Amino acid sequence: MDEETDKINKPKRPIPSGRIGKRTVLVYSVILFSLGIVLAGFINLVTFIIAIVNTTVLIVYSLVLQNKIFIGNISIAYLVGSTFLFGGAATGSIEFLKLPLILALLSSMATFSREIIKDLEDIEGDKQSFLKKLSGGFSRLAERFGFSTGGEIQLKYNKERAKTFAAGSLILAVLVSPVPFLMNLFSSVYLLVLIPTDAVFLFAFYMIVKSNGRRNFSRISKFIKIGMFLALLAFFLGVVF
Predict the structure, then answer these.
(1) Mean per-residue pLDDT for 144-150?
(2) Read out DSSP for 210-229?
(3) How many CA atoms lie within 13 A of 75 on its CB side?
(4) Which of 15, 24, 75, 173 has its CA 20 to 30 A from that of 233?
C-alpha cells in the first residue's frame, strides 16, 4: 500500500526498488498474520482477542487510516502500546489492570508524538501520494478530512497544529511517567533511569517547539526514539530490581 510514497521517501525498500513483488509480500504477510493469531490463541482468550483486534487495526490502517491525519497516528500509537497489554494478558496476573495499562499509555503517547513528527518529515512525499489517491471527484471528502482544493487537491497540513499535538503528547508522557513509581509498581531504580529518559523527551519537546524544517523533524524523531529506548530500559530495570 505504501509503494507510491516509498518511491519518493524510501526508494531503496524492497517493493519500490523492485527486489520483491507485491503479491509475494501479500502472501507472506497473510501467513504471518494467521500464524500469529493461532499462536496467541494457545496462550489464553484475552491474548487471542488482542491478536485479532491488532491484526484488524493494522490492516485497516494500511488500507484506509494511514492517509488520515491524527487518526492514523492514534492507530499506530495504540498498536505499540498494546504490546504491554498483550504481555500483561499473557501472564494472567491481576496486575494486568494496573502496570500494563500505564505502560501502554506511556508508550502510546510517546509513539503518537513521534508518528506526527515522522509525518511532518515525510510531508512532501506523502503529499504526492495523497494527490494521486484523492484525485477525481473526492474534493468534498478531502476537505472534510483535512485537505483543501484549488485547481487540484492539495494537502492542507497545518504544521503548527501538528507540532502542538506532538509536543503536548510528549509532555503528557513526561508528566505521567513517575506514576508507576508513585504507585509502588516499580523500584527506585526505575526513577533513576527515568531522569535521563525524561530529559531526552524534554529536549525533544524543546526541539519540536523550535523546529521549522524537515532536517529538524528527522533529528526530533531520532531523539524520541532514544527516549523510548531509555524508557523500555527503565521499565525493565524497575521490575528486575
Answers:
(1) 46
(2) H--SHHHHHHHHHHHHHHHH
(3) 20
(4) 75
